[in-house]
Write a structure and sequence with these properties.
heterodimer; A: mainly alpha; ABC transporter involved in vitamin B12 uptake, BtuC; two-stranded antiparallel ribbon; 17 helices; B: mainly alpha; 11 helices; globular
Amino acid sequence: MQKDQAMRDAAAVQAGIKQPMPGVSFDPSANPVVPADTGAKPYMTAAYGSLPGAVQGDTTAQGNLGRSGTWLIILAVLTVAVIPTALFNGYHLFQLTMVVVYAIAILGLSLLTGFNGQISLGHGAFYAIGAYTSAILMANFDVPYWATLPVSAVVCAVVGFLIGLPALRLGGLYLALTTFSLAIAVPQLLKHNSVSDWTGGVQGLVIDKPDAPFGLPLSSDQWLYLFTLAIGCVMFVIAHNLVRGRIGRAMMAVRDHALAAEAMGINLALLKTRTFALSAMFTGIAGSLGAITVQFVAPDSFGVFISIFLFVGLVVGGAASIGGTIIGAVFIQFIPNIADQVSKAAPGAVYGVILIAMMFLMPEGAGGFIWRQYRRWRRK
Amino acid sequence: MEGALHQVMSGIANGGIYASVALALVMIYQATHHLNFAQGEMATFSTYIALTLIHLGLPYWVAFVITVAVSFAAGMVIERVLMRPMMEAPVLSSVGVFIGLLLIINACSGWFFDYTIKQFPTPFPEQPMLGGYISGHELGSTAVTLGVLIAVYLFFRHTKLGLGMRAAAFNPASARLVGIRVGWMLSLGWGLAASIGAIAGMMVAPIVFLDPNMMAGILLYAFAGALLGGIDSPLGAVLGGFAVGIIENLGGAYLVGTELKLSLALVIIVVVLVVKPTGLLGRAVQSRV
């Protein structure tokens, strides 16, 4: 323990010396905040040991997929867009739409928990706020579905920022506890009489499914899938660029060693609250898309379990892995369907067992695991 | 006035239950610095065991004792198997394991005992007591929880084992050097916490009825109580639990209405963490940097 501490101090000093003008020369070509080669390993094992290699992988290598990689991703997106639209319909397309929705929601959680180290067990609250913002605007004010997305993005970002303020004073466990309480309290707040004129109280709100615009020859399911996928792509590109850039490095630096990060000129309070706002915005947009897809919102569908499922998806995919969020989303969408055939209780049990197994066997998540294997294979 | 007195009385009765769960949380927190998010589900599962035993024809108090014993053993097993490897793990991992445990136990409750809401018997007389201010069950459960709390206090203060457990929680390295088996003390702590939770579950089930999600709200109040009293102070947790019970009942009756009672717990948690993070009786944590 003592030695660990000493190494940590040494690394902090080293990092500080290498950055003589904190906050001024903080550009990408300068030293990354927690590069793999400044002896920063002790930070991660001590503060965030569950994500070995996350920082190295994400700051140095993962950004450089190269031009062929970019083309591969574009090709993959096109495939994912065209094939299901052409082959599937109805329920299967609905499921895939929900995968994209969950992926965006988990991406938001990943920015906060995985990249910034603030554990949230209450992201269902932001999902609910997004969903209700869209539903209220569509059902009560006849706003078109696409126009509700920016509104709920703004609403959720503001709420996230406000919740992020007290969260500043709460380290790890306490933040998890507070957000967990928020998740438990959400249905009660939604049911309350003072807002039931808008929210429809216990009954919730029913909204109409949007039709394809411009007379496109698509069913509304197909259109909604493509629409959600397009939004999802935009969100992923935003998150990817953000995490690879200056802000992303600052986020990870704060996660790995807040004190060293602050010493190098990062404004902790501003960064953390902004990350909270951003994360809430992502999850809120996902909530809006989810409400439009399901065409229904009710308080009891936003209980504590939606928050826990998002957390499960995050951990399964890999907390600090952008690609992993898709794996997490596929997991939380399809595993319940499969497990449901065994028993009504089975999905929860399967989630729980897999969650614990992941923590023991693959703490960096499926995304992190696959990425590490890929890099090992590339090196050969 | 009469109404307020009635609210305070039943607040104390609920507060006793929150105090027990809060105490269980604090015991685990003190020793391992982990917050047991699965505490509520463990208590619910224990209550189901008690109900099954009662349905098998055992007298209430026999079932009570067996349930407490089984919960104790189960708590120790969970500590040994799941929590021991997580001792030095980062917060995200331990939270993940606790959430996994929560999901598993919740699913098992539903799987084995189905999701219908069940009545749970009370061993206490039904008629109102103390001039009608409090029901027989409320009085009885308050007595039981107070008895448990006093027993726990005496155990920690006046037995060698209790002293050993306190030493192990306070400073594991030094405790190990003077010959205390720290690992066993942690297991014992988990067992005790599980038993206290089981008693709380059996006491609250006749009031809120038994279903797999019974303890979710109660866990929230217990968290609030533990934080209010100071997360590392057992006495504080007990006082905080009672205080939250009274605040909850008075607030529900006169301030925010019954529909927003849970949000009141959230408000207490946030206010305590922002205004006085150490709670009323907790010690400030100093960390070396």
